[in-house]
Amino acid sequence: MDTLVRLGRSTRLSHSPRPLPVPAGMIAPLGCDAVAIPARLGPLLTPRLPRVGCVYSDDAHWWWLVPSDSDHALDWPGPAHYARGALAPGAPRLIHRPEGGLPYTPPIPLYLVLCRLTGATPTWSSPISA
């Protein structure tokens, strides 16, 4: 009976969001969040970026690793989804690993290219209060 309960739990947990793994040999000193975009936009973004960090893919999305808090003062445009802790459902596979030891795509260029591709106006909120 206990075995059946454990199997039931592991089945449920496999659908829970899990952090995207930082590849072996890389470090993430700034922590990791992720930006998910529809898979159809991924190939359009890549050539427009000055640096592409770790990118993961599932059937519907490409997930870009960015430093933690890359949503601070930025309003990421739809259809993007910002995932704190780089939590992704299922098990996206690594499709791009950069050279060097850091897994990040620079968030500002990613944000600006995504805004351009989606027709969104870049907006920043002021992080400084008066």
Overview of this protein structure:
The N and C termini lie far apart (61 Å). By secondary structure, this protein is of the alpha+beta class. Mean pLDDT is 87; it is low at 1-14. It is 22% helix and 20% strand. It has a 5-stranded antiparallel β-sheet, with no helix packed on it. The protein has a two-stranded antiparallel sheet with strand order 1-6.
Short account of what is shown:
By secondary structure, the protein is of the alpha+beta class. The chain has helices at residues 2-14, 42-45, 107-118; strands at 18-19, 33-38, 55-57, 61-66, 81-83, 87-88, 93-96.
General shape: globular
Largest sheet: 5 strands, antiparallel
Terminal-residue CA separation: 61 Å
Gyration radius, in Å: 16 Å
Instruction: Determine the strand fraction and express it as a percent band.
Output: 15-25%
> How many runs of DSSP E, i.e. beta strands?
7
Order of helices and strands: HEEHEEEEEH
Structural class: alpha+beta
Mean pLDDT: 87
Count helical runs.
3
Helical content (DSSP H or I, runs of 4+): 10-25%
Could you give the order of strands across the largest sheet?
5-2-4-3-7
Low-pLDDT parts are 1-14
Secondary structure topology:
Elements: H1 2-14, E1 18-19, E2 33-38, H2 42-45, E3 55-57, E4 61-66, E5 81-83, E6 87-88, E7 93-96, H3 107-118
Antiparallel strand pairs: 1-6, 2-4, 2-5, 3-4, 3-7
